[in-house]
């Protein structure tokens, strides 16, 4: 089966002493699980929710990226994940307030 969209949610775990922190400690796995469960409940079988290793924007995590658009998001809560799911993944309208800009990704 081909997917219309792929979502990669960072669940990377790094040492607690690392000043950047990590998406795992900020709830990345719970965000991924929520997106996966809700996408299935909504019948969005053409959307694939995957876990990802480090996406290298640790300080803004949890983070996720949606392809094929290449839209990057910070996603601190399940409510934010739900907004991304409904607005972007279901309805095709990216959520501007949660988007990571190029400067944040390149930092």
- Which structural class best describes the helix and strand composition? alpha+beta
- What is the highest CATH level, the class? Alpha Beta
How many extended strands?
4
Q: For the residues shown, what is the average pLDDT?
A: 91
Fraction of residues in helix: 25-40%
The neighbouring-strand order within the major sheet is: 2-1-3-4
- CATH architectural arrangement: 3-Layer(aba) Sandwich
Shape label: globular
Radius of gyration: 13 Å
Unreliable runs: none
Largest β-sheet summary: 4 strands, mixed
Give the number of helices: 3
CATH homologous superfamily caption: Glutaredoxin
Distance linking N and C termini: 36 Å
User: How much of the residues is beta strand, in percent?
Assistant: 15-25%
- By CATH, the topology is Glutaredoxin
Overall domain count? 1
N to C succession of SSEs: EHEEEHH
Write the layout of secondary structure elements.
Blueprint lengths: L4 E6 L17 H14 L5 E6 L10 E5 L3 E4 L3 H13 L11 H5 L1
Parallel strand pairs: 1-2
Antiparallel strand pairs: 1-3, 3-4
What does this structure look like?
The protein has 107 residues and is of the alpha+beta class. It has a single domain, classed as Glutaredoxin, CATH 3.40.30.10. Helix content is 30%, strand content 20%. It has a four-stranded mixed beta sheet, covered by helices on one side. The chain is globular. The model has no long low-confidence stretch (mean pLDDT 91).
């Amino acid at each position: 089966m081909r997917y219309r969209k792929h979502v990669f949610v960072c669940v990377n775990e790094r040492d607690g002493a690392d000043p950047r922190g990590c998406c795992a400690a900020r709830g990345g796995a719970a965000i991924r699980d929520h997106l996966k469960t809700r996408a299935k409940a909504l019948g969005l079988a053409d959307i694939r929710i995957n876990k990802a290793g480090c996406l290298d924007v640790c300080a803004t995590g949890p983070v996720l990226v949606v392809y094929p658009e290449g839209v990057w998001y910070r996603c601190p809560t399940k409510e934010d994940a739900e907004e991304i799911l409904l607005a972007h993944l279901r309805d095709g309208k990216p959520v501007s307030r949660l988007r990571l800009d190029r400067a944040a990704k390149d930092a």
